[in-house]
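[AMINO ACID CHAIN]
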Amino acid sequence: RLWRCGVYLQGHFLAEGCGTKKTSKHAAADEAVKILQKTQSNVSATKAVQVQKVSGAARAPAKKKSLKDLVVYENSMNPVCTLNDTAQFNKMTVEYVFERVTGMRWKCKVMLENELIAEAVGVKKTVKHVAAEEAVKILKKTQPTVVNNLKKGTIEDVISRNEICGRSAEEALKQQIKEDNIGNQILRKMGWTGGGLGKSGEGIREPIAVKEQFKREGLGLDVERGS
């Protein structure tokens, strides 16, 4: 006498087997295991590659941007944050592509505008950080870097805002008024030949310097008096 045994999983039919009452159950279970193994292997293959995408800005599909114009925007000591900020700063797209290598080891590729920048292999928890760190190092070798308020560690080849302002003021004082300057031409038409202003040359010799205002300083602020 033949028996048919069906295997149901969560109320859904999965497999069946035929035989005696004793063997039909074993045959059905064996068939169910084969089907589950086949299904799970397909799911694992689908999940083996994962992509994390960070867009610089929501925009319509446009022509691919060239990385030669990229500026690294370093606003954090975290390399992942640096890459994400750089992508937003340049209105580009950065992607982190994960591929399972073996067991618990994953490969992470850093893609910027669909170009491979760097990759690393390790456990999934840390491999993204390692790959991002390597990508930042590679980009900083060839691209200009904007550093914003980094207070930890020492940074080489960085010019502060105060240094830039100081240099610009010094360079402005060194510059001489050229003959094609409108003010120079007007004064010469009025008889000025150089030196100080006035009938006897007793006036000022240099142009009035422009005082730069920073932050919330008001006009006429006297720093020494505190008023």
